[in-house]
Amino acid sequence: MHYKIIVSLIAFFSLFSVLAQKTDGGDKVQFKMINVNKDIYMLQGKGGNIGLSFGHDGVFMIDDQFADLSEDILKEIAKVDKKPIQFLINTHMHGDHTGGNANMVEAGAIIVAQDNVRTRLQETIIKAEDKARGDTKILPTITFAQDMTFYFNGEKIMIFHVHDAHTDGDAVVYFTQSNVIHTGDVFFKDRYPYIDLNNGGTVQGYMAALEKIALLADDDTKIIPGHGDIGTKKDLEAMASMLGNIYRRVTHHYTNHKTKAEIIAMRDFTKPFDDLGFGNGFISTEKMLEIMYDDVEKIKGKIDKRNMEERLQEELMKQQENKGGKGE
Ligand SMILES: [Zn+2]
Known about the structure:
- It is a single chain.
- With 328 residues, this protein is of the alpha/beta class.
- It has a domain at 28-232: Metallo-beta-lactamase, Chain A (4-Layer Sandwich), CATH 3.60.15.10.
- It contains 11 helices and 12 strands.
- It has helices at residues 2-20, 70-80, 95-98, 101-106, 115-127, 203-216, 233-255, 260-265, 271-275, 285-300, 308-327; strands spanning 32-37, 40-44, 50-53, 59-62, 85-89, 110-114, 142-144, 147-152, 155-161, 171-175, 180-182, 222-224.
- The strands form 2 sheets. The chain has a 7-stranded mixed β-sheet with strand order 1-2-3-4-5-6-7.
- Helix 6 (203-216) packs antiparallel against helix 7 (233-255).
- It starts with a helix and ends with a helix.
- Bound molecules: zinc ion.
- Residues 92, 94, 97, 166, 185, 226 line the site of zinc ion.
């Protein structure tokens, strides 16, 4: 009898814990708390990688995934250290990195971000259909233009803005003693990156940011990417060089009057990376080429893609119109 009660209680509680970890999509989220170096951890769940520093001052957190995961994220953090979260850095404005902001403020965190993150989040509040995103609690209370430094948990933590990269509000966090860098979405490991042209991102800014971060890193630096597993300085350099090559090829074809559809269909210069699975993540090869094309078009302006005959025809028409005009 007792045995039966215990079995059904176990069944009830395991069902309960499964439900507790379900998200809107109904998928169970498996959290992974990974020790990166010394007291720095990476928490993977659903959305952007969370960075964490634990120590005598409290918890220092980078990004917070989605609102419906906050309770579980707080539990995962408490398993390592029960001290409260003091500061939460938003690496940029996207919902898979800032979705838990209001909940983390409730839990006592102070949100810090680059100026443009606050501005962009304010815009999402105005447009919000989703109530959780319409709450002014999601806004950073401390913002900075270029960079700022924290002295926390016995280490110097440098936060700096990289311009017009993934968005226009990207911040990179460098734990100088632990030799760990959280890049936000300015780096994806082994995947094509997402460059959000509608929120101020640019391909050239993205490549420059990768190079800047690589300059700070040495061979032992652990890189926490926005998405994917921990990377190295070599991964940053490889990503910058890959993007440079692809961008040059897209620019070349663009100036040679290839259409967007033609360029998106090309695979010769992406093949080595496609073969490594770079296009199997959130950003497919097509999507990446489309971003490249749109970026080139933004910089170079729309190119006249008509053939020579069509252009000459128009030129003749114009000249005849002008002649007619002079006669009056
Ligand atoms: Zn993002």
